Amino acid sequence: MINVPFSPPDINEEDIAAVSAVLRSGWVTTGPQAKMFEQEIAGACGTDRAVVLNSATAALELTLRVLGVGPGDDVITTAYTYTATASVIHHVGARIVLVDIAADGYGIDADAVARAITPSTKAVIGVDVGGVVSDYDRLRSVAESARRSFLPKGRVQEVLGRIAIIADGAHSFGATRRGQTSGAVADFTSFSFHAVKNLITAEGGAVTWRADLGLDNEALYRDFMLLSLHGQSKDAFAKARNGGWEYDVELPGYKANMTDIMAALGRSQLRRYPEMLERRRAVALSYDSGFADLDVAPLPHSTADGESSLHLYMIDLAGRGVEQRNELISLLAERGVSSNVHYKPLPTLTAYRRMGFDIADFPKAHERYSNEVTLPLFSAMADEQVDHVIESFRNAINQIS
Length: 401
Ligand SMILES: *Cc1c(COP(=O)(O)O)cnc(C)c1O
What we know:
Layout: H1 13-25, H2 32-45, E1 50-53, H3 56-66, E2 74-78, H4 83-91, E3 95-99, H5 110-116, E4 121-127, H6 136-145, H7 155-160, E5 164-168, E6 176-177, E7 180-181, E8 188-192, E9 205-209, H8 217-228, H9 236-240, H10 260-271, H11 273-290, E10 297-298, E11 302-303, E12 306-307, E13 313-316, H12 322-334, H13 350-354, H14 363-370, E14 372-375, H15 383-400
Parallel strand pairs: 2-3, 2-4, 4-5, 5-8
Antiparallel strand pairs: 1-9, 6-7, 8-9, 10-13, 11-12, 13-14
The site of pyridoxal-5'-phosphate has 14 residues, from α3 and α4.
């Protein structure tokens, strides 16, 4: 039987050679590879700067910290996401405010965001579910409308002068919206290079921000450097230079830097990322035509607003519901096809129920979740695997209907 894993890493000999070269170089942690990876990410996104870190979760948390978000503040995000989007709000001591998703797609409902804003609101985090960039322009105009009631705390908030619009772009590296690339659409964007994502460094992430926020890019970059490496005034690479031992600690910081081993893998992946995206697109197009006559609704990856990064092939099973969805997943598994559900809305998870969230308050998220299944989609996918998924899905959907 043909086996189809959900999202295995796409590692080739060039990736292995790039990592080996770092292992042989005598410098394995944050150094020249990480700095070059930052420049290449900024180049790919069309931003002035990027910061590479050890995860997207760290990128999101440090973004909130750079913005000065903390106890007494509210941060609004969507119920339809992975826990990391919301847990970072908790980590900085702010209050998690969850809102439902919009009537179409899987993105945050901007009208619900507008209703949830209070003078305590400091940031909104949207999520690019499946690789589709959310409508951050709309969120920014919601934040602009609330400008007069915004109470800035600290230097960065004073310059921004309004609620910050943050993208959880864990899925959307390489995606576009209205001519801009993910990373330059929201005010701040975090990316994940975790092993199941589109471009991988095993564990890893990055943060970018728009150059037109009125903020001092060098000062922001330095804030991220300090927060991500103990608050130390020099990184280990700078200290390792002859005579460069002297340093200061400016604040009790965190430890979230990316190693050169990871960065070398990321740089190697980035060199062939256009081909990887092309393969993902070809697989998604095969699925689209393979399911065109079925009563299901795959997430559109190519629209008038732009191109997604084709991270997840998400299918809406058109009202069939949880039991039939779960039965479908079992039938696929029997044929060697692994699938997933994106996402269990946060209010259905124990941690968020304990915080007082009730899924009954998020009807759209509950409805979308109940009918969602995600099929395997990865750049190293063979044609016969694609054909097997199409055949298996068509069989399974007929059995459950
Ligand atoms: C994977 C993921 C994260 C976390 O990424 P890490 O790099 O593992 O921290 C955050 N948000 C979403 C939507 C994700 O899919």
